[in-house]
Amino acid sequence: GDSVTQMEGPVTLSEEACLTINCTYTATGYPSLFWYVQYPGEGLQLLLKATKADDKGSNKGFEATYRKETTSFHLEKGSVQVSDSAVYFCALSVSDYKLSFGAGTTVTVRA
Amino acid sequence: DAGITQSPRHKVTETGTPVTLRCHQTENHRYMYWYRQDPGHGLRLIHYSYGVKDTDKGEVSDGYSVSRSKTEDFLLTLESATSSQTSVYFCAISEAVGDTQYFGPGTRLLVL
After folding, report:
1. Chain A contacts of B97, Cβ < 8 Å?
2. If pLDDT is split at 50, 70 and 90, which confidence band does B102 have?
3. Beta strands in chain B (DSSP E)
4. Quick one: closest CA in A to B2, which residue?
5. CA-nearest residue of chain B to A95?
6. Going by C-beta distance under 8 Å and a sequence separation of 6 or more, which residues neighbour residue B38?
7. Longest CA pairwise span in chain A (Å)
8. Tens digit of pLDDT for each residue in B45-74?
9. Do A44 and B41 count as a contact with CB atoms less than 8 A apart?
């Protein structure tokens, strides 16, 4: 079946450090890929998405590139801020209703 | 932000009691979903709806039922709550199949 594997957390880093969260997927079809973010006490928000190979999604300084050859969609940010502290979820959707989520990665950024 | 509200936002109940959670949307989206969020599992789909009175099961549907009598409302019912159903429940909506899903603020349920 379709599944997503993302790196275990928690991740703790200092302000202005680089962040990378690895995400790989297994899919029977040709999926769309998503990163969602959940800030403390809130619901999930779409951070970025990509719908075909080599597409790059970007938002709020975060980027992720859809790599079909490595079945990956790693999330990156060059310089994190305290406000980026959150739980990040990688997810995929094939041509149906279902979003399959990774387990989530908790990121804490210290001033 | 997508207009999605959930009620109640917090609930404490006892084992064996029925519980109904409500999701209300103002976006007129066709698809609505109920997920539960548990540590180490991400979000898992309980049930979803693809139109008024059209619903289907997700991957963790046992012990849950849903109803959708109007486009804007999607109800999740725990017929007889158990401690294993202690979780945070999220409603989501989307305009089309495979499209971006937008999430509500969540309901935190504790079953004692």
Report:
1. 95-97
2. very high
3. 4-7, 10-13, 19-25, 31-38, 42-51, 54-57, 64-70, 73-78, 87-94, 102-103, 107-111
4. A45
5. B98
6. B44, B87, B88
7. 42
8. 999 999 999 999 998 999 999 999 999 999
9. no
